Amino acid sequence: MPELPEVETVRRQLAPRLEGAELRDVRIHDPRWTRPQPPGVVEAGLLGRRVERLGRRGKYLIWELSDEGQLLVHLRMTGALLYDPVGEPPHARVHFDLGDRHRLVYVDARRFGTGHFFEDPAARDRYLAQRIGVEPLTPEFTVEYLRRAARGRRAPAKAFVLDQRNIAGVGNIYADEALHRAGIHPLRPAGRLTGAQLGRLRDAIEVVLLAGIDAKGATIDDFRHLDGTWGSFQDQFLVHRRQGEPCPTCGTPVRKLVVGGRGTYVCERCQPRPRARRAGGRA
DNA sequence: CGCCCTGTTGGGGA
DNA sequence: ATCCCCAACAGGGC
Question: How many whole angstroms separate alpha carbon A265 and alpha carbon A268?
């Protein structure tokens, strides 16, 4: 569930509840959550601090705490933050007591999610700078940026889009949607994309992410079934995660590939396969 | 019922 | 730079 639009939705819904709250008590039941640091260290860092602002960078939620403290929460595939759940939810891994009879529970069936604590914003930014590139919904996300980032890269376009150091927050499903919308085959080497293709890719990424955010609490699975309200977007979306399903644009059966180690769905009519090139390249 | 495969993520080693 | 495997579990197909 968590790609950029979903994480941004979580941030928006949680911010008013969390900002200003004090972390009266923090209990980390899953030692994995704070790896490589031991949970005790992270708990000690969080205890008694107030949440001043809830931000986001790529798929990381940023808890800006009092006295400069910073907590980066990553939901990975199945993590979720539940505000005042009724009873004890399954797969609860971390409990935050917010005082005032409010609480926040981090649940995660697969336990891939992480929480990293940093003493100050500078340390946090050093961590992020190493793994997160340009935010796709900002003015910095230009065709020129994409061109520079893709130049000379032999990795497939799909892997390029998925690489968080290039574009922050685009996950597997949105990557397929954007490539389909841009008419780019996921296997085409990133460095061989034309200027026109890079332009279409930039715009397509923006469109699918905004559509996801506008779908509010819905997951991408939900907005695939949206009615007239979102019909203008719906027609552009690939029918996903189902080989043989007709492409909504042209009716060609969707084919499944594995690219960058991820299941990848493609319409090979809308997204023509790259022509094989002779080995040995440069003269 | 059991086995096998798949998966919305990122990190580390080859 | 790139590729492959891994983490740990749920759910679906057979």
Answer: 9
Q: Higher pLDDT residue, A231 or A184? A: A184
Question: Which nucleotides of chain B have an atom under 7 angstroms from any protein CB?
Answer: 6-12
- Residues in contact with A152: Cβ distance below 8 Å, sequence separation at least 6, in sequence order: A191
How far out from the chain centre does Cα A184 lie? 21
Q: In whole angstroms, what is the distance from residue A108 CA to residue A79 CA?
A: 4
Residue with tokens 């994309």: A193
How does pLDDT run across A94-141, given as a tens digit for each residue?
Answer: 999 999 999 999 999 999 999 999 999 999 999 999 999 999 999 999
**Closest amino acid to nucleotide B11 (CA–C1'):** A131
